Amino acid sequence: MSEEIIIVSGLPRSGTSMMMQMLDAGGLGIMTDNIREADTDNPLGYYEFETVKKIDENSSWLNDSKGKVVKMISPLLSNLPPDYRYKVIFMIRDLQEILISQAKMVERRGSEGAELSDEKMMDLYDRHISGTKDWLAKNSSTDVIYVKYSDVINDPQSVAERVTRFLDLPLKTDQMPTVVDSSLYRSKPK
């Protein structure tokens, strides 16, 4: 078993659940509690592990995560303790697509969205991603690969092979692309 913890990260609505599905199909152990069930916004499931959200208070669960995959939104990455080794698969998606996807989710749920304009949200997201990339580059306990959402949709086989090389694990790369459903790419800018 690998001693490294594999983390799938990115902004919300950036394709992290899709990557989790690919890694699950590839044969990796997934850290999930199934509390958040599949819905219209993520019909194949969210693959979340609620304990992750409180990593700043308790990181003891990381010991059970060695050799497994856990999903963690990018704002939480800086709370990773340096006493573990991490392989981070960071999902990158067009910021306009993320905003469209988030707006659709908010509308479907009948909840309230952010009070900021799209331009301000895109600026905040852009600065966050830039800062996170800097942090990841300087963090000696972390290796990272950046994966574009559009690459997964357009050529999932190549992405599966690239991720497999990065993880250096014997994954079922032929199975990983089978879970990518391009019909779920519903948040394209007009």
Task: Give me the CATH architecture, please.
Answer: 3-Layer(aba) Sandwich
* H/E element order: EHEEEHHEHH
What's the level 1 CATH class?
Answer: Alpha Beta
Q: Report the radius of gyration as a whole number of Å.
A: 16 Å
Contiguous low-pLDDT stretches (5 residues minimum) are: none
The domain count comes to: 1
Task: Calculate the mean pLDDT score and round it.
Answer: 85
Note the total helix count: 5
Report the sheet-strand fraction: 5-15%
Number of strands: 5
| Basic shape | globular
CATH topology: Rossmann fold
Would you give an account of this structure?
The protein is of the alpha/beta class and 190 residues long. The chain has helices spanning 16-25, 95-109, 118-138, 149-154, 156-167, and strands spanning 5-10, 29-30, 68-73, 86-92, 142-148. The chain has one domain: Rossmann fold. It has five helices and five strands. Strands 2-3-1-4-5 form a five-stranded parallel sheet, sandwiched between helices. The mean pLDDT is 85.
